């Protein structure tokens, strides 16, 4: 529960009402049905009085009983219709919110999503929307209907007997205050219990994300204990909430009993003195019950409403998430027109150029005056971690935009290209190379609409997966675990590269996309890429020597600036470059030499 949850209830209520505005019609129907239900209930005591008085007067009871029965049946029908319509309205409201949230999340910029906790975003779409679905519309309707019911009930009682009505008002007010006091505690205790449950799921999520690490570091016991601690706290908080709930329930019962009995006692005296008839007393007693019941429902909903409003506030926050926009409408920053008709420029003109780019996250500068040009062939980016390599690739995909300078695709500023076009022309394999799609085939073609089988086969061949996939009983239809656990890191990376190749883009960005392959396999993969897709601009981030050895140009970043550029051989004279490639994970120049010399295109084990 966020600290300001309770401090802004009215603005949250206003948000709820404005969000419900498109459902004005349905909401009116629901209100009318609920008011009808309550009205039918309020008529019943009057009808009952007529029956009682009729008995006393030995009059014909046919009509009063018929009216009583009809009113009861109408009330039941209205209740059914109101309940159903209200539920349906809730569902439609939540459906709209959920769809809007999904749209806003996928439309948000990378920086927005990556700066937030996944668990938090997930709970807004899941738990928060469920909370709203269950309670909020009902609570809002009760907020309108119940006070009206109470006022109408009191007015009707006043028409029967002012004295008894006043007694009932005083008694109900006292009972209401007592109930509200206890109820506030129920709400607080329930919220505390929910917080502990959130802690519980947090532990589970953490464990699942790093399951192997938990196992390998023998931390099962520790994690289980941490889970137990949270579960115990949740239990204690829940039991406390149950205890307060029991108290609240008892207070509510006592209030009805007390009000009923006192009214009965006072009423009997008034009947005996002849001030009111027996029918009047019966009617008033029925009003005590019919008013008490909705008031109780309202106290209940009030708690739910505050929960629902807090959930709505978190959802609204998400709905206000910034969205990526095309800036195609802005005046073009570049003279070379964008290739906006979807046709590709001739390979000779293809290039990705970083022109005096400056960039920082917040006020932390990350890239300083970076100028790079990559043309068809392999450009390798090296640099120690934190040097800004991933950031550089992010700029080319326009996940982030430069503070100064520009990134140009075939001479056109990427900010002048529609995002869909830019990302269609620039394929990207992100660090960690996660897979999307349930099967190998889906993972290999994710985001690509039309891949013909022959091309896919060639691509899988290029990334060295074809033999392996064809050997699987289900081939491309083989399922992949949720986070690709049944396949090796190397296979996952190969699939990710295949997916990027299937896009048939001009530019391919690989962010340490071959890091889990052994040097020989990486070498083979890179060789087939540069052979089979020679007209593409490939920019690959790597820490590996052999890959740099094969590159047309190597660019070394240091503290966000281009430290050196040239071929691998050119750079060997640079002490920082030598230091970088001397690290054990980088492989040695001799290994690179041997690997290249060993020449033949032995596709290594894809299991690497
Ligand atoms: N989303 C981000 N918010 C703030 N700082 C970031 C973000 N991403 C990267 N950085 C910082 O920017 C610098 C460069 O990061 P990155 O481009 O990922 O480096 P590399 O890929 O070379 O390891 C690092 O200091 C890193 O901490
Ligand atoms: Mg990186």
UniProtKB/TrEMBL annotation:
InterPro entries: AAA+_ATPase, ABC1_TM_dom, ABC1_TM_sf, ABC_transporter-like_ATP-bd, ABC_transporter-like_CS, P-loop_NTPase, Type_1_exporter. The keyword Transmembrane helix applies. It is found in: Cell membrane. Residues 29-307 form the ABC transmembrane type-1 domain. SUPFAM superfamilies: ABC transporter transmembrane region, P-loop containing nucleoside triphosphate hydrolases. The chain crosses the membrane at residues 21-41, 61-83, 163-183. PROSITE patterns: ABC_TM1F, ABC_TRANSPORTER_1, ABC_TRANSPORTER_2. One of its GO terms (molecular function) is ATP binding. Its main location: membrane. Keywords: ATP-binding, Membrane, Nucleotide-binding, Transmembrane, Transmembrane helix. Pfam families: ABC_membrane, ABC_tran. This is ABC transporter ATP-binding protein. It comes from Saccharopolyspora erythraea (Streptomyces erythraeus).
